[in-house]
Request: fold
Amino acid sequence: MNSSRIKLNRLPLTALRTFEAAARLLSFKDAADELNVSATTVSNQIRKLERDWNCKLFIRKTRAVVLTDSGRSLSGVVSESFGHIKKEIESHIGQSKRSLRIGMGPIFGRWIIPKMNSFQKKFPNIDLVFEQSQRITNSEMMSCDIQIDWGESDSWFGLNSDFLMNVTYSPVISPKLFAELSDSLHDISPTELLNFNIIHQYDFSEWRAWMDLSGFHELKVETGLTIMDSNVALQAAIDSGGVALGSFPFVDPEIMAGTLIKLFDIDLQPTRAYHILIKQHTNPNPDILLFVSWLKEQVPLSHLTK
Reply:
């Protein structure tokens, strides 16, 4: 009895790890391959456990091994214990990396990516994977942990929708094209915009709505260049390809840098807005909550009103 107690005072962790692999795989050879040791080493370590504890853990057959009742009982305890140790190391000691997959459209990505340094400094153990995604309408279309999408609050079936921000539209133009229009912003009239190429995104509806808001609803804007990618449409305006409806706050950096000029203080606010979409989890991933909280802090106060 005293001899057994002395032997159990120091648990043979290496041999137990070997036993766990052999019990899980039911093969000394496969356990040896997994642990990068020889099959003889595996066999010797398990024989020593059996000898020290005076119990048989495996029944050896010609091409396989089978757990005894004692081996099966020990296997359950050892596997669970090693699992708890691994989880503890990953969660608290090792500070292992976690990752979130975030889907968004191109114009939103252009705006938020330059701000990501602050998130990475605040949460260095969360890796973010950004995916450019098309608009979705239901949970089956969502492949990411978080989706940033554009629409009405009830546009998505089977998803939790959280309002993020409004946008506004107003004409923007490159300094080069602006110099051809006038020497002063105060001299510009919406009618003069038709002297230049009108850049549309997707269709003509937004330009028509902005012209109605400005009071020049009789002007026809169903002409010009139509671009489906909002980033490409913005770049076309920067490159003096025409006059575009800038989406604010997404074009604020270009306005501040002087690569684009906002022509009028007439802002069109559509009924649709940006929302954060999350699958309906029973227990939400805490990393998702951290990212959502950080994301909301990046939105200018002027765009927070529903």
Notes: The chain has three domains: 2-93, 100-166+272-303, 168-262. Residues 1-6 have pLDDT under 50 and may be disordered. The two ends are 75 Å apart (CA to CA). Residues 77 and 241 are 69 Å apart (CA to CA).
